[in-house]
Amino acid sequence: MARPFRIVAITVLGFLLSTLVDLAFNTESELGLHTLFQIRGPQKTPDQVVIVAMDEASETHLGVGQDLTRWREFHAKLLDQLHHHGASLIVFDLQFIAANPSVDPLLANAMRAAGKVLINECVQKFRRGVEDFYGREECSDRNKIPAISREGEPATTLSEQLVVMRKLSPTPVIAQAALDSAPFYLINDSENASIRESWTFYDALAEAPSLPVLAWFYYQQASSANPEEQPLSAWLTAQRRACANSPNLDHRAKLLICAGDSRYLNYYGPPRSLRMESYADVYDGKVTDLQGKVIFVGRANRQFSPGKSDFFPTPYSDSRTGKMAGVEIMATQFANLLEDSFIEIPAPVWLISSLFGLLIALLLVGFAGWPGIVLSLVFASAYSGSAVWLFGLRHWWLPVAGPLLIQLPLSWLLSLAWSRYDLMRERGRILEFVSRVFPQWVGVLPAAPGQWTEAGIAGTEKDVSGLCLATDIEGYTTIAAQHSPREMWELLNTYYQVLGHPVVSHDGVIADVTGDAMMAVWFDAPVSNQRRAACLAALEMAAAVESFNLSSSLAPLATRIGLHEGELTLGSLDAGSSSHYRAIGDTVNIASRIQGVNKYLGTRILASHSIAADLDDIVTRPVGTFRVVGRTEPVTLMEIVGLKHGSDAQPNEVHCIFANGLAAFQQGLWPEAVRLFQAALACDANDGPSRFYLQKALHYSEMPPLAWNGIVVLDSK
């Protein structure tokens, strides 16, 4: 039950935290979507879209300044030029609200002559009466009429939640001359945040279509599906209100009308990515390549000016590019409609995030520890790569900020915390096991590894000259992570009995058992007897563990053994209300370090030279001199290979070649050493010491050490 619970916990906690952070800081849009745009980079823009920019150069050339009402007298000639050069549709991102009797009739005639002019309708948004007011361009202060009346005293404050939207139509002369009109109101008009979405329909304004949607339907000649010959804007509103009963719509049109009221914009690049021509150049007839183009006319400064209104941040905006003009955003939405290239979310965000968290949890629980973290990192990298690829290819937006920045690190922390918890519980079980099992092995000294009996030398210390044997299980953390605590308990219960019997049978003492390591000592006996007994115990332990691994249904416990002799202090250490027996001294530490050298040499049993040099009935071979971690003095090591069988046993050929190679290596004769180690491996490809020294000799052949004394320095345990 522990594994399913952990998988669910990691998945749910990661998803909840990611969701809460996104709700508080909008991380997925502000960071995730913007990052995807930046990685993807600019895209090719459609040729059909052209922006006629009422820019700084035109303001100067026409002498109109920034007052939009003064531009109206020039629009008639602009329309004549656009119509003459074959523009397919002309869309004004301007709101002709205030009447100008001196120029409006001329402009209206030009609109009728062109027959393809769409104009913008002003949308005003009020919050708390007139205290907060938002509107674009000519939705100016003179139109800020209270949308509602306060009741009671004049000082009465309206509710913060009270929001009103209304639409102001163009002046009748202009409205009747235009082909049609619709509003264009940006979602984030009142915020200094990037524009990511744009309305397709304004349900708060009687389900009116937005101006880019209206323009797209006119460009597609969708009016053929309008049998009543009413304005297309009114027809679209009617279709949206009854979209479930609209058999005349094709699939794409029905999806646009009926599915939601906004879409995520697929920006083509920074401001001025779409084709943009200066108003003055078009007005003077300098721009002729306009056949079949959809023209958007509006204010769009060519040089970034932070003080200008009607300019908005986008995912590509920065201090160099500046903000994007409202007319560019309108043209971008039309271009997305034209190419059917809006940013889409292929599945609910909660579902994608949950699946991401679930797969991460499965990897971390199934491969606990660092393997799980590495695999989860590989999966997260593949996910992020897929998100970038799908965003560029299909315009699909997969969540990246929450999964990669929140769910993944949190999952790692939870996984490591549980691994630590399992390790502590397992150590507790092992200590409990040791206290039950080891009394049968030791008579006078400890009743269990680490504890003294009353019959022993409780409360005293004893300095001895002895021999220490240290063991360790290779890859123990990985093995423990793959099994439940109960399974590890049963495995180690049998393992330590197998490991302990050779020690006791050769008059050794189990001094300590900690997790996957055991420490045994020999003392108060002739030195030659201690050495031989310890080596025999080590060989029997290796053979017993090999048999144990063959019979075990769980993972094999590859055991490394190290032996060293020297001065020891045996005694009890008080910890709380109990006393623990320990062997203390540098000899213990060196034995543990020697045990670790097996990892480099691929051997099972290593001993310091003095222990194994004079044992006639045991096969040994020298494996070199090493400076281990934490030690200044080097230690010369021997491999304990096995027992000799018969007095005429022939020397091992591999050992002889290796010995010659080791001598050449220690003398700094690198080419000769390489040749001999290669010869040894040709005889036995699994000889670990030959492989280790071959790599060293090859390295030193290319980069000889500055001062060579034949000592191999190991920089880790």
Write the layout of secondary structure elements.
Blueprint: H1 2-25, H2 27-40, E1 49-54, H3 56-62, H4 72-84, E2 89-92, H5 104-114, E3 117-127, E4 132-134, E5 163-168, H6 172-177, E6 180-183, E7 197-199, E8 201-202, E9 208-209, H7 211-219, H8 232-241, H9 251-258, E10 262-264, E11 275-278, H10 279-283, E12 294-299, E13 311-312, E14 324-325, H11 326-339, H12 349-366, H13 370-394, H14 401-437, E15 446-448, E16 451-452, E17 461-473, H15 476-481, H16 485-505, E18 509-514, E19 517-522, H17 527-551, E20 559-575, E21 578-584, H18 586-601, E22 605-608, H19 609-612, E23 618-627, E24 635-643, H20 653-666, H21 670-683, H22 688-702, E25 711-713
Helix pairs in contact: 1-12, 1-14, 2-13, 4-5, 7-11, 12-13, 12-14, 13-14, 14-16, 16-17, 20-21, 20-22, 21-22
Tags for this model:
4 domains; Alpha-Beta Plaits; alpha/beta; single chain; 22 helices; 9-stranded mixed β-sheet; 717 residues; 25 strands
Radius of gyration from the alpha-carbon trace, in angstroms: 42 Å
Extended strand count: 25
Q: What is the mean pLDDT?
A: 83
Structural class: alpha/beta
Q: What is the number of helices?
A: 22
Percent in helix = 40-55%
Unreliable residue runs = 149-154, 436-459
Identify the quaternary structure here. single chain
- Span between termini: 36 Å
| Tertiary shape | elongated
**DSSP strand content:** 15-25%
Q: In total, how many domains does the architecture comprise?
A: 4
Largest sheet composition: 9 strands, mixed
